[in-house]
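[[Local backbone shapes]]
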Amino acid sequence: MSDAADIGEHYDRRSPIGDELRDGQLHMWYWYDRADPASLTEAVHRLTRKVTDTLGLRAGEHVLDAGCGPGETAVHLATGFGARVTGITVSDYEIARATERAADAGAGELARFEYGDFMDLSFPDDTFDAVLALESLQNAQDLDRVLAQLYRVLRPGGRISFSDFSLGAQGDPVRLAKFMDTLKLHRLPTLAQWLEHTRAAGFEVEEYTQCGPRVFGKKAKYVEAALSRRDEVTAKFGEDAVTEFSRLHHGFFAPRKDQVGYVIVSARKPLSR
């Protein structure tokens, strides 16, 4: 099985329940502290806004949502900013669900979804005004090749923003290996290494942050939120599906909270090279 097909199957199996728990967004959350009263859905949307706002989108701009998930982020960009969004994913479930979600939101003309492997994009050079990659670069078999593809399809002066896991504290390699295997990660760069890869692709880094303590560091709040909805989710998907979902994600919680960071990087393609 090719890497893209393997990743597609990975998300076909995990996305339906993840979609239900996080309201159409499979990425992480953002809680300020243990006392933060935000629901899981609100915390996930909070991270969406934190990353997408760095793009500075204007109405009518064309955005590539590289690894679009079940489509809620693309709908947010379309309805909130008036942007045209092309979402790509290697998951058949996600394409179907994202298309349905955009239609339900009245955004079907602005947000379109299709199969796309960002290792080899079919779009012409300079197609997009902006690129968004929310926790999708982690799945890149060849990160430098993917960044080169995203650079190619972005117009000169266009922007890219991405968020992803990063390596924090060293130690406990067994715990870290379980985490990486669960998410099918090929690597776990440090913040400095993420910036190096971005610059090596030709981008000019304009802003970055490390917000791991408020993201992976709040995994206990996610567990509490997910468990509070277990009966509801079980009634919809069945006990076997929920048990399998839990098994597939068990290794995600293995690392210490200081081992896994979370980076947000915003960069721009120069007007000329």
In short: The radius of gyration is 18 Å. The beta strands are 62-66, 84-89, 111-115, 128-134, 154-167, 204-210, 260-268. The chain is about 40% helix and 20% strand. The longest strand covers residues 154-167.
